[in-house]
Each structure stands twice: as C-alpha cells, then as structure tokens.
Design a protein that fits this description.
CATH class of the largest domain: Alpha Beta
Pfam family, one: MMR_HSR1
Keywords: Coiled coil
Radius of gyration: 26 Å
Organism: Eubucco bourcierii (red-headed barbet)
Strand content: 15-25%
Protein name: NOA1 protein
Strand order of the largest sheet: 3-2-1-4-7-5
GO molecular function, one term: GTP binding
Number of domains: 3
Mean pLDDT: 87
C-alpha cells in the first residue's frame, strides 16, 4: 500500500524500518498485517517486536527474498554508526568477528576507513569464530590458531587500534563465550558502547543472540529485545540492533565467578536430562562446546489467573463462551534503565568490494539458496584425505579443482570443506570430460540444475602453484578454493610439486602459508584398498567448564 508511510519502527530481526509501501525494499511487511498491528490504540508502536516478511521467510522457510539495495549500503550504515559523537567520553570498543575458515580475512585491513579521525576507537578485540567446526589436528591446535589470528591482525596493519585481545569462540555452540564475557567485563567494564563488526556470514548475529542471553546484558534485556535473525544467506542484518550492557560491579563480578566455579565442579552425569540432551545435540554439530549460563536473571512475577464469572455460569445445553484474547503488551525499558546505558550493537556484515576482497561474496552470489546450504559448513568438518600421483585430478564439487601436474612421489591432499560437498578423483586426461559431463549433475552436486544451470555459471579459471614439501606429517600450504573450502597439501621433505588449481571466474584463489591446520592429514583412518581415499575419522568433541572423570 504506497499510501502508508514508513513506520519509523525497526524490524526486530534485521533492523530495517518496517513499511508496507514497497515489496522490494528492506523492512517490507504485507499491508494487511501491517494495518492489523498498527491500527490499535498504540498506533505504530504495535509494530514493536514484529519482523519483516524477509526475516519471517528466512526463519520459518529458509527462503531469502531478493532486495533492491545498493551494494555499498551495509558499509555506509556501519561507517555512520562508528562516526557518531563520543558518548560518556569514550570511543567505541570494536569487537571484530572473524570467520576462521576465511583466513586471511579481507575486511580487517579496511577497518580504519570506516572510522572518523574525530571518533577514535578505544580498542579492538578480535574474535575468531566457528572454531568448533575445525578438528584438533595435534595437541596445542588452539594455540596455533590463535597465533594465526594474531598474525592476521599484524598483517592488516591496524596500528591505530589498541589491540585488547584475540579470542577463539564458537557463537553457535557457546565455546569460549564465558571467557570472552569475563574478558570484556574485566578490561572494558562498562566504559562505552561496543560494536560487533565483521564480514558477511562471520557469525555476528549469532554472537549477538548468545550475548543477549548471558551475563553481558542487563537482566531484563532478553524479555525486551528480540533475537536477531540468523541465516546462512549473506547480508541478513540490514541495520543496527542493540541491547543494554550490564554494569559489572564488584558484587556482580564476584557472584558470576562463584557461579562459574560451581559449574566447573560438575560432571556431565550431574547435569539435568535436558542439559545433557542439549549438550549432545551441540556435540554432533561441533568439536568444541561451551555452556553459557546466567547469573543475573530477572525474577518473574507469578501468573495472575483472571476469572470471568459469566464463564462459570453456563447451562449444560450451552457451549462455553470464550472471551476475546487481549493482545499481549510487549515489555519496554524504563527511562531509568537506559538513560545512562552502554549498548552492544549488532551491525550489517561488511561486504567485500574491491577486486582483491570481493571473492567470497561473489561465490555465494553465484549460488542458489539450496546450494549455499550445501557449501557453508554448519557441522563439525570431517577431513577427507587422498593420496594422488602426478597426472591425477581432484574435484571439490564443481566449484574447485586441483591438478597434480608434476612431482616425483605421491602427495597427500586433505579436503577441509562442508561434509555435504562431494570430492571426486580422476585422471588428468579425463578431468575435462568429467567436468563437462557431470557439472550440474549429481556426481559433482554443486551447482545443481543440469546444463541450463551451467550455462549461467562462470567457467573454472586455472592458476599454477609450485610447492616444496616439508615432511610427510606436516602440510606445506592450504590451497583455498574461494569460499568452498581448502585443500591442505602434504609432501615428502624437499619434494617439489607443480599443481594447477581452478576456481570460478571472477573469484580468487588463495595459497595460505603456513597452513591453518598443518597436521590435518594425520586425522585419517586406513587406506581404502584400490582407492586414492583414506577412511575418515571424527575426533571426539570437548565440553569446556565441565569436570572430566578420570582426568586431572
């Protein structure tokens, strides 16, 4: 209905302004639904806690509606937020969320361009997310990952930002979150606002939701602030979302530490059946699991039962009459609760723009909704190792290809990618024919849709790579096939390999040295007879902050 102006009320899922006048613009809600919520005595306030049509379809049907949105819109929203005048005498703390699977992160070096010289950031805390998806390739793997993350910050040249800390977490399974909250409350306290920043699909909104139900927010915040919409589709959050940060007084810090100590004494057997069931669910999804609790929970008043005398006085022949339900009033913060509040903001994902950093977005834009769900890993990645001789080719779906052109000995190629993506091994002489015949079909799976789908999909473009092995137990490099995953290459010491890797045209291939998980080829079973593949092996999951029986 173009006659109804925008509401001025934000969608509680993505932050866009709710409106019913343009179905292709952010925040659209069907006019009938819009009027039913806004025509009451509260007016447009009745739209509070409502979500737009796009968020509804993402949450309930996994469908992503296309939006008419300028490509630079996300960056403008973030930059405008970071250039606001100082509040409480402090610049913002930047909590940068980085997807570990996408190292080196292409957006991190661009942070300085988002800030204003007049509003300097008070600090930068870098959070490596999705650590639960990566298996422990050897003892000390978390320390090595943290070193890689710290090195990425150094290479990004962020000298203008005081680096507060570098943390490894899983926003999804809760691993590392209690430690992150303690670090924030100990070092940052409640000095100023906090902004969750990062590239699209780095997990900002998932972290926002986890912090919303933790000791980091005011106790009443989960009753007032809705959870952000989370989906595998890039660019879900369109504007700012926020919750008020709790003031970590000495008493609150003490009570929180006491709770954490008590929980660390428990074994898994001492948890309730519901807690064990939830932990087992998380263990199936990730290698590293954490338990995020709440010390400061609001005491809810008991439910008041309202009696209608007329409802109790109907005869046997009459049907009971149901009083019309009153619409539940949404809770709001009082003035005193938020007048001096510091806020934690979720922000839109920063989209990679220039030719060097645009590859992740472009690959996902080439894919359909079903294909994106297959490509982006949501469960613990099980590495798949193959031994290839010169003259053999490896396909990762139809999104990437590695040819072993020249070498003296076989080498090991370990795939770290979504478990749903197929790997196909063939001879170099047959590789072109295999791609021509099976791209778009079941064998290579993604893209899907047959010849018609492949007509619109860009061709694979080659890049030659020369590597020198450092030993049969340690990978020399990762060949990152854009956002589809990577291949860790392990070869005999001093063995020279000539490889040719392919990714779709318009995307970027990265050779990552040193590799992210250098000992990944060790996570394998026995060699399958008459096959280039080894049997897969899934390392056990670990739950932090739980006492393990039999260990000290």
């Amino acid at each position: 209905d173009p006659s109804i102006p925008p509401s001025g009320v934000s969608c509680s899922g993505c932050g866009a302004e709710l409106q019913c006048c343009d179905s292709e613009a952010p925040g659209f809600m069907p006019a009938e639904k819009y009027r039913s919520l806004s025509d009451g005595p509260s007016g447009v306030k009745g739209l509070r806690n409502a979500v737009c049509q796009r968020c509804w379809l993402l949450c309930h049907h996994g469908q992503a509606l296309g939006l008419r949105l300028p490509p630079e819109q996300h960056r403008l929203v973030v930059s405008a937020a970071l250039r606001r005048p100082l509040r409480h005498g402090y610049g913002p703390l930047l909590l940068y969320i980085l997807d570990l699977l996408e190292l080196p992160d292409p957006v991190l070096p661009q942070l300085q361009g988002l800030m204003s010289p007049d509003v300097p950031a008070a600090g930068l805390l870098v959070v490596g997310n999705k650590v639960d998806l990566l298996p422990a390739d050897a003892p000390g793997h978390l320390g090595r990952l943290r070193e890689r993350l710290t090195a990425a910050c150094t290479q990004a040249g962020l000298r203008e930002f005081p680096l507060v800390d570098v943390r490894l977490v899983s926003a999804k399974t809760g691993f590392g979150l209690e430690g992150l909250i303690s670090r924030l409350q100990r070092s940052w306290k409640c000095a100023g606002d906090v902004y969750l920043l990062g590239a699209t699909n780095s997990g900002k909104s998932t972290l926002f939701n986890s912090l919303l139900h933790s000791d980091y927010c005011k106790s009443r915040a989960p009753d007032v602030v809705n959870r952000a919409t989370v989906s595998p589709w890039p660019g879900t959050t369109l504007n700012l979302l926020k919750f008020p940060i709790i003031n970590p007084t000495c008493d609150r810090i003490f009570r929180r530490q006491e709770r954490l100590k008590e929980e660390a004494k428990k074994t898994e057997d001492q948890l309730s059946s519901e807690e064990r069931k939830y932990l087992n669910h998380l263990k199936k999804q990730g290698y590293l699991v954490g338990r995020v609790g709440r010390t400061f929970q609001r005491q809810k008043s008991s439910t008041v039962v309202e009696f209608d005398p007329d409802m109790l006085s109907y005869s046997v022949d009459e049907e009971p009459r149901h009083s019309p339900k009153k619409r539940e009033e949404s809770e709001e913060f009082t003035y005193n609760e938020v007048k001096d509040a510091r806020w934690c903001f979720d922000t839109p994902g920063i989209i990679k723009e220039n030719c060097v950093v645009r590859f992740i977005l472009q690959v996902l834009n080439l894919l359909t909704e079903k294909e994106v769900k297959l490509v982006l890993p949501t469960h613990a990645i099980i590495p798949r190792t193959f031994t290839l001789k010169p003259g053999m080719t490896l396909f990762l779906a139809a999104l990437g290809r590695v040819d072993y052109l020249k070498g003296e000995k076989p080498a090991w190629f370990t795939i770290v990618a979504s478990n749903l993506l197929p790997v196909h091994i063939t001879s170099l002489s047959n590789a072109d024919a295999v791609y021509e015949k099976h791209a778009g079909q079941e064998l290579l799976k993604v893209p899907m849709g047959g010849e018609e789908r492949m007509k619109e999909f860009p061709p694979l473009i080659p890049q030659d790579i020369t590597l020198k092995g450092i030993g049969t137990t340690e990978a020399v490099a990762d060949i990152k096939l854009s956002s589809a995953g990577w291949v860790a290459v392990t070869a005999d010491k001093e063995e020279e390999l000539l490889l040719r890797a392919y990714v779709p045209k318009g995307t970027t291939l990265v050779v990552r040295e040193p590799p992210l998980l250098p000992y990944i080829s060790a996570i394998r079973g026995a060699r399958i007879a008459g096959n280039a593949a080894y049997r897969t092996k899934r390392p056990p999951s670990l739950v932090e902050n739980l006492k393990t029986i039999g260990r000290r």
